[in-house]
């Protein structure tokens, strides 16, 4: 006698299933049970506690934001809503060498760690303490975490102008090992930032090796994204080659007035340096970046938009040129008066952005900064913009391949088992969207606007409005 068909928790009917593998979409139903995908196909007679009629819209795996600074934002639904609202069900935190743990400073941390908050926000003296807090919290999204090189240097080094001495390096290696044992997915570094500038290649290799020996990745914000980008990218591959770590090249770009078109050079470099080195890249679909206020970044930009300023919070949302004119001073002087703070920098070319997004190992990472007063629109709009502008409008790549870049590719890169696919047995992280309506509404002038066309999001089988079902992965 056949076993009776289960009563699903949720049955999604009549969807165009884009399963995350890159294969052509197909029409079908998807049954969810106990937080997992239980069945996919024609489930005609099936019963369920809740039935969602998809009406032919696209059902895909929940999107994985591979590059975030949501380390603190994940603890509150309000601050992680920008991701959940655009179909993101998993965020990778701790990028650019900036992680919330392990650090519990008495004073406010230096830039760019201050992008995550002030001294009181860094309340985790060990990575295990951060992991426990994530495990105990009611999370709205899943969280995968990296441990930041800059955080480790601030923790162990008062003078960060040069490489770590043997004692300091040993202490940082121990912290990496402890983080990996507590579930970290690898090490990140941001060699362009003050806490890390003094680090040499050997220091990065030693820390990356400690992560790699426990299965971890090396995510690198390279030392120079402007004129020296080629040499900085070679250094990243060297770090991966010598440490044995899987390399993730963060927010790939060629920035600055003199570097337009150099994305083609970097793609050729990937072919030369990447032989025998497992690697992937991430990028966001915008021609402006955002980080702390820095004169070097400002000098390479056609426009600078202030995102936040601690001494002058009302400056947020205004350009540096407007502020300098209002104060009657040069822009360089205005920038110094605004610090500490952050800004949006217009310093890239659209053709270069497209070239990176078209690369077959390119994942999507928003690099959004959730604590900015006037954030870059990528915080709210990255994934919808990618699908609307680069897939639907410009046809840079097919829908199925675009979904793969946001789902199964990053799941594989970061070792997120049974995620990133619409397959029986996988965790039920799903997004239902209307491919004709999906679009970003966030703009540089009005960035806190949710995307259109996202119809429903499930995190571990739970609809986004029904509660917090995220997990520390």
3D architecture notes:
The protein has helices at 77-84, 127-136, 149-156, 166-181, 194-197, 201-212, 229-243, 263-273, 295-299, 320-327, 331-338, 350-358, 378-393, 399-406, 408-413; strands at 7-17, 26-33, 36-41, 47-53, 58-61, 63-65, 88-93, 142-145, 147-148, 186-190, 217-221, 246-249, 279-283, 288-292, 303-309, 341-346, 362-364, 430-433, 454-459, 462-463. It has 15 helices and 20 strands. With 473 residues, it is of the alpha/beta class. Strand 19 (454-459) and strand 20 form a beta hairpin. Strands 1, 2, 3, 4, 5, 18, 19 and 20 form an eight-stranded mixed β-sheet that branches.
Features:
single chain; 473 residues; alpha/beta; 6-stranded parallel sheet
């Amino acid at each position: 006698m056949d076993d009776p068909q289960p009563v699903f928790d949720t049955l999604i009917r009549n969807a165009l299933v884009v399963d995350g593998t890159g294969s052509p979409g197909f029409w079908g139903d998807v049954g969810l049970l106990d937080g997992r995908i239980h069945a996919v196909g024609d489930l005609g007679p099936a019963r369920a506690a809740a039935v969602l009629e998809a009406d032919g819209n696209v059902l895909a795996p929940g999107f994985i934001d591979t590059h975030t600074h949501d380390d603190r934002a994940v603890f509150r639904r309000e601050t992680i809503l920008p991701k959940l609202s655009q179909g993101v069900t998993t965020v990778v935190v701790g990028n650019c060498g900036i992680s919330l743990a392990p650090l519990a400073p008495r004073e406010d941390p230096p830039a760019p760690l201050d992008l995550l908050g002030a001294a009181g926000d860094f309340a985790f003296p060990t990575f295990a303490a951060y992991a426990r807090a994530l495990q105990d919290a009611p999370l709205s999204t899943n969280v995968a975490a990296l441990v930041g090189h800059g955080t480790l240097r601030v923790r162990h080094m008062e003078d960060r102008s040069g490489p770590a001495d043997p004692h300091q390096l040993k202490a940082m290696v121990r912290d990496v090992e402890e983080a990996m044992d507590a579930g970290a997915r690898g090490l990140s570094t941001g060699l362009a930032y003050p806490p890390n500038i003094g680090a040499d290649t050997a220091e990065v290799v030693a820390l990356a090796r400690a992560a790699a020996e426990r299965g971890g990745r090396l995510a690198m914000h390279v030392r120079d994204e402007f004129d020296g980008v080629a040499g900085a990218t070679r250094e990243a591959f060297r770090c991966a080659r010598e440490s044995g770590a899987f390399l993730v090249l963060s927010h790939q770009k060629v920035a600055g007035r003199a570097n337009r078109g150099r994305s083609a050079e970097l793609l050729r470099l990937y072919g030369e340096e990447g032989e025998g080195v497992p690697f992937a890249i991430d990028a966001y679909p915008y021609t402006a970046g955002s980080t702390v206020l820095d004169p070097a970044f400002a000098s390479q930009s056609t426009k600078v938009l202030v995102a936040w300023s601690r001494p002058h919070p009302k400056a947020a949302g205004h350009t540096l040129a407007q502020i300098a004119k209002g104060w009657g001073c040069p822009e360089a002087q205005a920038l110094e008066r605004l610090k500490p703070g952050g800004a949006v920098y217009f310093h890239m070319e659209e053709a270069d952005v497209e070239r990176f997004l078209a690369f077959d190992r390119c994942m999507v990472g928003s690099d959004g900064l959730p604590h900015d007063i006037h954030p870059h629109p990528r915080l709210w709009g990255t994934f919808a913009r990618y699908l609307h502008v680069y897939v639907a409008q410009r046809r840079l790549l097919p829908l199925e391949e675009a979904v793969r870049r946001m789902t199964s590719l990053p799941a594989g890169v970061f070792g997120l088992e049974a995620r990133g696919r619409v397959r029986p047995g996988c965790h039920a992280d799903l997004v239902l969207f209307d491919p004709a309506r999906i679009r970003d509404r966030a703009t540089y002038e009005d960035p806190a606007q949710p995307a259109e066309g996202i119809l429903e999001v499930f995190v571990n089988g739970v609809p986004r409005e029904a509660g917090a079902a995220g997990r520390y992965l």
